[in-house]
Amino acid sequence: MSLTVVEGNFVAAEGKYTLVVGRFNEFVVESLVDGAVDTLKRHGVSEENIRIVRVPGAFEVPLAVQRVAQQKRDDAIIALGAVIRGGTPHFEFVSNESSKGVAQVSLDCGVPIANGILTVNSIEQAIERSGTKMGNKGAEAALSAIEMVSLLRQLEV
Ligand code: INI
């Protein structure tokens, strides 16, 4: 008896991808965008199949992600943004709502949505995760998106 394992790969990456990007903390977020686009391109996705949709901040990302998913254009959506803790509870609202919203849309619409929204305690942590010593979470989100596209193609209903 042989074990069946179904998992995505990073080879068959053709497909359409939209990045939904919260502009807030732009200095950090643009490095996430660069990391995601670079990863998609280096896995064979052509520029014509990559679209970037920008919104004011992470709080607005879920609604734009929902609208993009409803268009049924994309094989996967990549949510990018940076929520950095300040001195008020605003951080909790924005980070909770953005991650809950992205997860909800993914399940409601059946489209893979990679969550590359940083939620960090300091600007230093944000910089570490946007292309320095902790990697680039935008690039990681793009890889997850590619893998999920590949997986869902194997699990077609
Ligand atoms: N938006 C972010 O993307 N990151 C943050 O760190 C942030 N903080 O800390 O305030 C933030 N706020 C704006 C929010 O996303 C909305 O754009 C705003 O509340 C208007 O709805």
If you had to describe this structure to a student in words, what would you say it looks like?
This protein is α/β, with parallel strands linked by helices and 157 residues long. Helix content is 46%, strand content 22%. It has five helices and six strands. The protein has helices at residues 26-42, 61-71, 90-109, 123-128, 137-154; strands at 17-22, 50-55, 76-84, 113-120, 130-132, 135-136. Strands 2-1-3-4 form a four-stranded parallel β-sheet, with helices on both faces. Helix 1 (26-42) packs across helix 5 (137-154) and helix 2 packs parallel to helix 3 (90-109). The protein is globular and about 55 Å long. It starts with 16 loop residues before the first strand and ends with a helix. Residues 22, 24-25, 56-60, 81-84, 86, 90-91, 94 line the site of 5-nitro-6-ribityl-amino-2,4(1H,3H)-pyrimidinedione (INI). 5-nitro-6-ribityl-amino-2,4(1H,3H)-pyrimidinedione binds at residues 22, 24-25, 56-60, 81-84, 86, 90-91, 94.
Please give the order of strands in the largest beta sheet.
Answer: 2-1-3-4
> What is the residue-mean pLDDT, rounded to a whole number?
95
Mind telling me the C-alpha Rg?
A: 16 Å
Note the overall shape: globular
How do the helices and strands follow one another from N- to C-terminus?
EHEHEHEHEEH
* Strand percent estimate: 15-25%
Ions, cofactors and other ligands present here are: 5-nitro-6-ribityl-amino-2,4(1H,3H)-pyrimidinedione
Helix content: 40-55%
